[in-house]
Here is the input.
Amino acid sequence: MALVEKHFGVDVTRIFPFYDEPRKAVYRLDVAGGGPLVVRLFPPDRPIERVEGDAEILGFLAEKGLPVEEVVADLGGATTGSLDGRGVLISRLIPGGPPAITADALEQMGAALGRMHALPVPAPGSGHLARGAGSLPREDLALGREWLAAAEAALPPGRRAEHDALRLALEATHDGEDLPFGLTHPDCHPGNMVQTPEGRVVFFDWDGVGQGPRIAALGVLLYSCAIRAPFGAPTTPDIGRVDHIVAGYAHHARLSAAEQAHLADAIRFRPLVVAARTLLKTVQRPSPRPDDEAWFTAYDRAEEVAERTVAALAAAAPQPLR
Here is the structure.
């Protein structure tokens, strides 16, 4: 509160934690005479340069008209700060609530991602826009393999088949590193979106934004909308939702034949890796299966979602780029 009051010239009347843990926290700050702010406090080991990149990229995307949260500059014009050596980023609170999974909202999600993926790829070394994204398939799949290896030593006999199925699926999943790159949101699911009272879907949680395989973000979005999102109220799977996402996406970007061939990998990688992490946790500390298990154990539906996506892409853009 003191940091914001000093550097932004406002009086903070209330602070409310959205997310509050030792390494990372997000707070809502109500201020006198102005709209609420959102303060993100990053882990101590996250370089300040990375936080500065978040602010620069968000400003760039806002200039391009993409639906992103608005970064707030302090009295000196700085868009980032630090608190005890930890990066701080402040934005305006996006009014609204979780997006409704309707045709219009899904099309907006697809369109926003398509517009981002249609942006020119900057030359290497040309600033924050050229930085790599976080939580890419290559990194996540490597973690998944490590977690399975760690789980194997204490694996109960009754979970051997589950472990082996996960191992084979991880080994068979392509990481997309040889596919087209673009500026992308690596955690692109409805839990990181807000729908305003006017019906506009706005994305938040951009600290992993950067260059990466385009289909990784598209795969996360497709799975989380057609099957189930990792956060929020459970929804009944509906493969037909894919059509609305593709309608928005294909209006701005198109996928190469190679990207279409690896869509199932992009759709499966995130829930597959979470399934591996959950197996390790339950082996290390036996406990009842988590209530949200349904969302990540349905990774085997990736082929079904991919086939529907390719069909919808063919209808929207019958001549894919090569």
User: Anything to note?
Assistant: The CA atoms of residues 101 and 225 lie 7 Å apart. DSSP finds eleven helices and nine strands in the chain. The chain has a mean pLDDT of 93.
